[in-house]
TrEMBL record:
UniProt protein name: dTDP-L-rhamnose 4-epimerase
Family indicated by similarity: Belongs to the NAD(P)-dependent epimerase/dehydratase family.
Domain annotation NAD-dependent epimerase/dehydratase: ranges: 3-128, 167-276
Pfam families: Epimerase
Gene3D superfamilies xref list: NAD(P)-binding Rossmann-like Domain, UDP-galactose 4-epimerase, domain 1
Superkingdom per UniProt: Bacteria
Length: 372
């Protein structure tokens, strides 16, 4: 069976490609080698056994070529991260997904299944428990609250600091950034059009994915790569807020396995699933782990700066996908070891974040408390 992986040169897409080839599928890759992620052009890990097409989802001529003879599509292509480029997200993510389905429809292609990469970002802030008022789904913390360095989420009824809970797929979505809005576009376009055109479709909401092939050139996405390149250049990793915000880190190979699982499982059709580890890790712990493993002579620097559209705590409830057979197999420490082994093979790495940070501050994406 012939399979297409859009964004197949990226971190997640390329690991899906590897798994597919290992299982005997014929694989095509469509990727535009977007900058700055692919600063050095085509990565050397692209397998010779896969057919590589340099092209763009927004160009129908590229899609027609990529979709020829394809039975299954892993739609991983997207522009991500915290950048001020509003229209770029909409064009690449929303328009690109719409064009994909237009070509399938207009050419009456026989597609058996589509798996689309969604994101934890569609949830907005996580789920919380107030000891007095119970479970609630907060809006994003206000800039006024963040400027006062009141970092934790407070109950809207009593203003008590509340306890983060695992996020279920049933949680109301609240995309609060241009990126997250367009990821929800991708998810909804795929599920709605999949039903309309009778193509089984699945959306996977990835939590914070890391591992080998995470770009060391892109300063706008990937906290592990940003911290690692700072430490490798003897610079302190910069922590927003107080560094105690938590995320669910999931190793890239576990994410790739989840993709093949839902491809094969009919029970997944037309549904949405979280893909995470189910464990919360503080950002400060990430920085300290990387410093220890890189033997860095630096300490994390708490800047008290913040990103107005950032969430405080979010961790996946992975019950639904676990019932299909998913089980994360790589611990955070094991995953970091494997990621750093890969970085060491890349030669000298540069710190691109420090320069990009100034542009992000000018655009208002990073801000400081009023008295700093």
């Amino acid at each position: 069976m012939k399979v297409l992986v859009t964004g197949g040169a990226g971190m997640i897409g390329s690991h899906i490609v590897d798994l597919l080839l290992r299982e005997g599928y014929e694989v095509k890759i469509l990727d535009n080698l977007e900058l700055p992620t692919h600063r050095n052009g085509m990565p050397d890990y692209i397998p010779k056994d896969a057919e590589f097409i340099k092209g763009d989802l927004t160009r129908k001529i590229d899609l027609v070529r990529a979709l020829e003879g394809v039975a299954v599509i892993f739609h991983q292509s997207a522009t991500g991260g915290f950048t001020p480029q509003v229209s770029k997200y909409v064009i690449a993510n929303s328009l690109g997904t719409a064009r994909l389905f237009e070509v399938i429809r207009d050419r009456n292609l026989s597609i058996q299944k589509i798996i689309v990469a969604s994101s934890v970002a569609v949830y907005g802030e996580g789920t919380y428990l107030c000891p007095e008022h119970g479970i609630f789904y907060p809006t994003m913390r206000s800039i006024a609250q963040l400027e006062k360095r009141r970092w934790e989420v407070e109950c809207p009824l009593c203003q008590r600091v509340s306890v983060p809970q695992p996020v279920k797929e049933s949680k109301p979505v609240s995309p609060e950034t241009v990126y997250s809005i367009t990821k929800y576009d991708q998810e909804r376009l795929a599920l709605v059009l999949g039903k309309l055109y009778k193509i089984p479709t699945v959306a996977l909401r990835y939590f914070v994915t890391y591992g080998p092939r995470q770009s060391i050139h892109n300063p706008y996405t990937g906290v592990c790569s940003i911290f690692a390149t700072q430490i490798a250049n003897n610079k302190a990793p910069l922590l927003f807020e107080d560094g105690l915000q938590t995320r669910d880190f999931v190793f890239v190979e576990d994410v790739a396995r989840a993709n093949l699982l839902v491809m094969k499982e009919k029970k997944a059709d037309f549904k949405v699933f979280n893909v995470g580890s189910g464990k919360a890790i503080a950002i400060r712990e990430v920085a300290e782990t990387l410093i220890n493993k890189l033997n860095g002579d630096v300490q994390p620097l708490i800047t008290n700066e913040f990103r107005p559209q950032d969430v405080r705590h979010i961790v996946a409830d992975i019950t639904d996908i676990s019932q299909l057979g998913y089980s994360p197999s790589v611990s955070f420490e094991q995953g970091i070891d494997r990621y750093l082994e890969w970085i060491e093979r890349q030669g000298k790495v540069e710190d691109y974040f420090s320069a990009a940070k100034e542009d992000l501050k000018k655009a208002g994406i990073i801000r400081s408390p009023r008295w700093l």
